[in-house]
Write a structure and sequence with these properties.
About 35% of the residues lie in helices and about 25% in strands. Strands 1, 2, 3, 4, 5, 6, 7, 8, 9, 10 and 11 form an eleven-stranded antiparallel beta sheet that branches. A hairpin with a 4-residue loop joins strand 5 and strand 6. By secondary structure, the protein is α+β, with helices and mostly antiparallel strands.
């Protein structure tokens, strides 16, 4: 079986190389010897869009050169790119770009297109890929979990502490917002002395009922940068290499002189792992850290 990065890279290349050859999810799944539903699930899981809509967008984008640089009839362009009828091409084109092919040819207006997806080698791991950064607004929320005081050299122990919490302490927590999602909160960061508090936890409605031995924490409303890790393994196999890569990506983002945002180091950050997203083959982990404009 191809590793996740290689599989996705090949699929993206196949789409670009076969835009005029009626490429579709069925043809791709047949080539890589798995079900069409499995391909659709992988693509949607990783890229947050369906493979069908992505292929359609790339085909429609490819037709733009024919519309703008040739005098070919619209019906011939439609057939060339796999549309059975001229009208179905025109309707699909207008949904994508907000304008008909004929009107675009006449007005020559600027339109927004969906560029090809790319994977980057520097975000490649043995069994996974890191995506981001994205910018999101995270509303205020509360968690209850097991607090650990760690130094930066203890980062490789985080996955083990998370596993211990998930198998033991989480069972004591009531009134959870999402019992399937583990929130690993890092707070009270001291960059000079190199230590912080690490709290594997569950989100709760309020902090009125904190079990003995556990701690209640609040993450305030914050604009955050988000990185997303997709791994070809179970959550329990998330290891120190994955954690280190994610923190290195955040560090590189923070040190980029051209970036418009800076990290707010004194605020908490967190990792979110939702067990419902594991489909038996792939898992997902999201990292959020607050930022502000420079």
């Amino acid at each position: 079986m191809l590793k996740l990065y290689d599989l996705l890279e090949n699929i993206l290349l196949d789409i670009e190389n076969n835009i005029k050859n009626n490429i579709n999810a069925f043809a791709l799944s047949k080539k890589y010897n798995f079900s069409e539903s499995h391909l659709r699930r992988i693509f949607s899981f990783v890229f947050n869009q369906s493979v069908a809509s992505y292929i359609r967008s790339r085909i429609l984008t490819a037709t733009l050169n024919d519309i703008l640089e040739t005098d070919n009839d619209i019906v011939d362009i439609a057939i060339k790119y796999g549309f059975e009828y001229e009208q179905s091409y025109i309707r699909t084109f207008k949904r994508e770009f907000g304008i008909t092919p004929g009107h675009l040819r006449k007005t020559r207006q600027i339109i927004q297109i969906k560029p090809p997806l790319h994977l980057f080698d520097e975000r490649r791991l043995d069994n996974g890929i890191l995506f981001g950064p994205d910018f999101v607004m995270v509303p205020r929320f509360h968690v209850i979990g097991k607090r650990h005081h760690l130094s930066f050299k203890d980062l490789p122990t985080e996955p083990l502490l998370t596993k211990q919490f998930w198998e033991n302490e989480r069972k004591q927590i009531k009134e959870t917002v999402n019992p399937h999602a583990c929130i690993n909160l890092s707070c009270n960061l001291n960059l000079e002395e190199g230590h912080f508090d690490y709290v594997p936890s569950l989100q709760v409605k309020n902090l009125k009922d904190i079990p003995p031995g556990l701690s209640g924490e609040t993450f305030d409303t914050s604009m955050c940068v988000r990185f997303r890790y997709i791994g070809q393994h179970h959550y329990y196999e998330i290891n120190s290499d994955v954690v280190s890569m994610m923190y290195n990506a955040v560090s590189n983002f923070a040190q980029d002189k051209n970036a418009k945002y800076v990290l707010i180091h004194e605020k908490s950050n967190f990792v979110k792992i939702d067990e419902r997203l594991y489909d038996g083959t792939y898992c997902q982990m999201e990292y959020y850290t607050p930022v502000c404009e420079k």
